[in-house]
Structures are given as C-alpha cells and as structure tokens.
Amino acid sequence: MTATAPTLSPAPTGAAPTPRAPRRTALVPTAVLALGTLYCLLPVAWVLVAATKSGRELFSTFTFLPGTGLTDNLADLSAYRDGVYWRWMANSALYAGLGALLSTAVSALAGHALAVYRFRGRETVFNVLLTGVLMPPVILAVPQYLLLAEAGLADTHLSVLLPQILSPYGVYLARVHADAAVPADVIEAGRMDGAGEWRIFRTLALPMMLPGLVTVFLFQFVAVWNNFLLPYIMLGDDEKFPITVGLFTLLQQGAGTPALYTLVITGALLAIVPLIAVFLVIQRFWSLDLLSGAVKS
Amino acid sequence: MNNRTVATCAAAVLATAALTGCGSSGGSGSSGPVELTYWSWAPGMDKVVALWNEEHPDVKVTVKKQASGDDLVTKTITAAKAGEAPDLVQAEYQALPTLVGNDVLADISGEVGDAEREFAPGVWQQVTLGTDAVYALPQDSGPMMFFYREDLFEEYGLTVPTTWEEFAETARALKEKAPEKALTTFSSNDAGLFAGLAQQAGARWWTTEGQKWKVAIDDAATRKVADFWGSLVKEGAIDNQPMYTPAWNKALNTGKQIAWVSAVWAPGTLTTAAPDTQGKWAMAPLPQWEKGANVTGSWGGSTTAVTNDSEHKEAAAEFATWLNTDPEALAALVRESGVYPAAQAAQTGDALKEAPEFFSGQTDFHERAAKIAEGTAPAAWGPNVNVAYSSFKDAFGAAAKKRSDFGAALRTVHETTVADLEKQGFEVAK
C-alpha cells in the first residue's frame, strides 16, 4: 500500500528573498503532506468504523457513524468455519515472518559481498539484480508456479516462501547501505587483526548495516503480508491460505450467496494489527544507525 | 542475528522441506481409499461432502474452498498446465467452453448414466456444449424472475407486468405517480443479467460452424433487448445507476426502487441489501416478449466437473453424479449451501417446501419457481465469455451513464469479442 504524494516544488521563482519567505513556502509542503496523510488514513478510518457495524447497519447508517456490532463481528469471524481465520493469520505470520527473515539474511550476505569484494562480473551481477527490481513480481507468479510444480512443491508452504526469499530490491538496498555505512578501513582493520571473512561480516559489517537491514525486513514483511497473487496461484488448500487469499473466498461465494462483507471488513481490520505492531517494535532500530558501529570520526 | 538464529531458520526450512516431501504424495497410492480433491466455493460444501464420505469409505473426497469467479478459471487452467489440477472443480456454465478449450475437463459421458433426464433441456445443453460429450453435471441454476415490492405496487395501483411492453408501461406509470421513484435500474456491472435477458429473447451468442466459431452478440434478439432497455433509460423511465453499490442497497431498502429483475437467488441478496423490507416482496415470472409464453433466461449457476488430471475419473464422476442427482445430497446442498438445485426433482422437493424467509408471504414461492425454471432457454457460451463481459461492462456502463444509444454499445461488445477470438487464434465465421 503505497501512496506517492505529488511533489510540488515550492521553488520561489522571482526575487525578494526576504527572511520571511522560507517560512511561508513551508505551508505548501505541509498542506500537501497533510492532504497525503488524510488520503492514506481515511480508508483506514473507514475500515475501523465499518468493522463496528452489524450487517444491518453497514450500508444503511452514515458512513463514519460507529455501529454496535463489533463484538458480534469478532465472534462471527472467529466462529466462521471453526476459526479458519486464525489459521490464515498464522499462515500469514509464517510466510511474512520467516520469509522476511530469510530474505533479509540473503540480502545482507549478497549486499555485503557486492559492496566489499571486487570480483569479475560483480557489476554484471548487480545490474541483473537491478533489472530484477524493475520486474514486477506479479508477472513472475505463473512461471514460478510452473517451476515449483515441476519440483513437486506446488500447494505447499514452501511454494509461497521460496520465491520471496530473493528480493532484488532488498539486495540492492543492502549493497547501497553497506557501501555507505561500512567503511573499507574497518574491514581492512579487521583483516589486519586476523579476523576471518565470516567473522568480519558478523561482528563488524552486520551491526553497521543493521538499520538498513531493518528497512529491508520491514519492506519484505509488508510485501509478503500483502501479497495476493503468488499464494493465490500457488495454493489450492484453503488450510494453507494467508489472510489475503482467505478473505477473498469470503467475498466471492458465487452469484447466489451474498458476500460476507462484515466478516471481510473485520478480518481486514485485524489483519493490519500485526503490521502496525511490527512497525512499532522495529522502529527503534532505525535510530541506531552508525552510532552502534565502531568508526573513527 | 546470531549463529543460533541462523541455525534455527535453517532447521525450520529443512523441517518444512522434509514435511512436504512426505506429505505431497497423497492420492496416488494403490492401497487404501481413493482420495479426491474438490475445488468449490459453495459455503457448507464440506458438510455435504461429509455425507458422501460416511457412505463411501472407499472414495474420500476433500473440499478445498476457493473463491468463485473468473480468477478461479484462470487458476484452474494454470494448475492444469502444471498437471496439478484437482480431481473435481466447481465451474460456472459460461466457463465450461474455456475450460474445455484448454483441455482441462474430462468427458464423463460414459460415467454419468442417464443423469440427463434429471435436468431441464436448456440446462443440460450447457454442460454438453451441444456435443455428445458431457463435461460437467449441473449443480445449481439461476432461472430469472421478476421481483417486486407487493405493498408499493398496491399503493401506486400498478399491476404486475406479464410482457415487456407492460413492463415499460409500468415503469412510465410509476414515474408519473411518483417522479422520485423508479421501477428498477439498468445496471451494467454484471453482464450475466443482460446475457440472461438476451437468452430469453432467443439469442445464441456463440455457436460453432464446422471448425469455426460464430459470434452473434449483435443478433436481432439481443438488439431487441438492448434497444428496449436503452430507450427506457433514455426517456428516464428507469434509473441508470449500477447494482450492488451502497447507493443501490439504500434505494431498495427505502423503496426508491420498487422492483428488481433478477434470478431465483435474489432473496439471499435482498436479505443483506434491503434488510428493512422483509416480507414486503413478491416474485413473478419474468415479463415475456410474447404474451402467454413461459421462457426465462439464466443468471448464475454452476456445475461440477471432472478434470483430465484426475487419476480416478470414474470415482470422481460417480461422486459428481451423486452430489447433483441424489435426493439426500440435493437436500443437503439446499440446506447447507443454500443453492437452488438444477435437478428438477429437487426444485419441488421437501428441502424447498418453505418459501425463503424474506418472501414469507409467498408460500408457493418454490412451486412457482420450479414452473418458471422449466422454461429455461438454452444458452450458448464460447471460449472468451470473460472478454465479452468486461467489454459489456465498459461499453454499456458508459452508454447507461450518458443515456446514449445501446445499439452502438452492443456493436462494440460484438466487435471486441470477435477481435479477441481472432487474436487468440480461433477461426471465426463471418
């Protein structure tokens, strides 16, 4: 879920650079950002309010008027097909948690290697990865399915995990971050002191790269959590569905059966809670940055 | 991340690999019961299947619940390309030619016995595609009907229209008496409705001519239907807003729209769309083009099909036949999944004795519905229904909004459909 706010350049063309001018132009970006915030938060507010409405109230009362059905909705959602929703939640947690962790590990190793070592074909590898960044994962889903089916892995947990472990964007980010945050001198010093390459990576480079890796982890976690098409194509067994695919089955029940809107909305609300939790917990690692590394000034 | 975490992750991956390694070989063993997987979206299908599993310990069916719609067709075709399609799939009637064209469905004419006589001819024809093969068994059907607010019809002194001409008169009469209300709306967001109306008028959109497809979306029958609705929209006798929106729900709930051309499953939709109007509705046959006729189209409905990937086609066909013709299974389908069965015996069976709760005033609801269903017109589906449907949404959506010529929109749909068929490499008869 990304919203790119239009970047208005507040460039004060013309003269008169009075001291008050910068203060005035700040109004425009602030207004744009406020508008962007509103644009992003309004749908969330809608979900929040709509989740409190009973099926009867959903389409008949004022949009942002809270309803009376939240507890009933939660109970219904938990009771739906013997609590299959929680199963989907656990699946999503597995796919996103383990997937993001493995992906971050791969990105860290690859990024470190690309940044620190000079070897033949390094730029080629990096350029191929960059091309991968431009490739939307959506178009890869079907080929990946056919490949994994060939390997006998279709309709397994692995079929969703494996394709998401290599994230070109994660490797790119890790390399750029390693380039900037891990000084060559530190690596050199480590070698002088007789540390092996693995130890240099683990005790020197990794802590310095941590803020960047946290970003990679978060990006990947959100991407996997929200991913729909890949698990949709890979999985046939509804016991292995993540939340996204699971909720879709509640919406599309055939022409004769009304969609379970209240359950889907409540389910969608609960589905963003873990995302917010992960953000809040991991946020603090961002501020660590270079302070946690040992660098000469 | 320390060494231990890395080790734990690695162990977890290996464990998953080991688990899937031994878990994915189900179904092909020669000993033990035959195992069948069934992709279905009908709610409560697992409970219906449980009845089968109890009685047939040698053939175990497992339901994997899916989301309905065109996406499932794509998913099934993709799975079949990899040889991973389930033994049985639920498929809508209009999806069958696409699935057959992609070599997904098995011909089970040898296994279904004389199931044909259980179904209305217009329904059965849709699973044979007009050939000698049988590609699926009809599960539920959606014969179209006219639903109206009985109380408001009385209040405004309207009579229930039996022909489309009377339908237009009724719409105009209501506009005169209550300009802020409308009889109904013309909605372009579900092409299935329009397709059903065209079938009633005698349209056959896709037919084959030798090895060639013939598309007739722009035929005289369909044009008649398009012009009829187009002129009603143009003169403002009916509304032009789409269905299934919060605004539409509100219009039905508050009585701003007092009728709905829909199918037999409408009570379920109305229950959520217009909860305050319970007991105020009644159902009547669809208005006819010829006075005294009993013809209706279909909107919705689905089948149970066996795939070519199945290693136990015979057992799968046996299950599909049981599910859609056995009285006990049909009763369970009605009870657990809320479907309107395609099998004629079940349409008047015990399970459908009582009228839907929402239509409690009309005690003979299902008796009348079964009579209407007898007149189900045949439908002719082709390999790119989805393209025609999405083109319909765009072209008719714009035409309804601008209250402009529906004939031009129909030509657009026709041309888009033909162009897509040709692009896909089919030969199209001119």
As a whole number of angstroms, the C-alpha radius of gyration of chain B is: 24 Å
Order of helices and strands of chain A: HHHHHHHHHHHHHH
Main CATH class of chain A: Mainly Alpha
| Percentage of residues in helical conformation of chain A | 55-70%
- As a whole number of angstroms, the C-alpha radius of gyration of chain A is 24 Å
CATH-derived architecture of chain A = Orthogonal Bundle
Note the total helix count of chain A.
14
Number of domains of chain B: 2
Structural class of chain B: alpha/beta
**Strand runs of chain A, count:** 0
Greatest interface (CB-CB under 8 A), with counts per chain: A-B, 41 and 56 residues
CATH superfamily of the largest domain in chain B: Periplasmic binding protein-like II
Q: Count helical runs of chain B.
A: 17
Overall mean pLDDT of chain B stands at 89
CATH class identity of the largest domain in chain B: Alpha Beta
Globally, the shape of chain B reads globular
Summarize the biggest pleated sheet of chain A. Answer: none
One letter per element, helices H and strands E, the order of chain B comes to HEHEHEHHEHHHEEHHEHEEHHHHHHE
Query: What's the name of the CATH homologous superfamily of chain A?
Result: MetI-like
Number of strands of chain B: 10
Brief sketch in words of this structure:
The complex is a heterodimer of chains A (297) and B (430). Chain A is an all-alpha fold.
If you had to describe this structure to a student in words, what would you say it looks like?
- The complex is a heterodimer of chains A (297) and B (430).
- Chain A is mainly α and 297 residues long.
- Chain A has a single domain, classed as MetI-like fold.
- Chain A is built from 14 helices and no strands.
- Chain A has helices at 21-25, 27-50, 55-58, 70-79, 84-116, 122-134, 141-150, 157-161, 168-181, 184-192, 197-226, 229-234, 243-251, 261-282.
- Chain A is globular and about 70 Å long.
- The longest helix of chain B is centred in the N-terminal third of the chain and has 21 residues, at 3-23.
- Helix content of chain B is 45%, strand content 14%.
- Chain B has 2 domains: 31-141 and 299-352, D-Maltodextrin-Binding Protein, domain 2, CATH 3.40.190.10; 143-298 and 364-429, Periplasmic binding protein-like II (D-Maltodextrin-Binding Protein, domain 2).
- In chain B, strands 1, 2, 3, 4, 7, 8 and 9 form a 7-stranded mixed β-sheet that branches. Chain B has a 3-stranded mixed β-sheet with strand order 5-6-10, covered by helices on one side.
- At the A-B interface, helix 5, helix 7, helix 8 and helix 13 of A face helix 1, helix 3, helix 10, helix 11 and strand 9 of B.
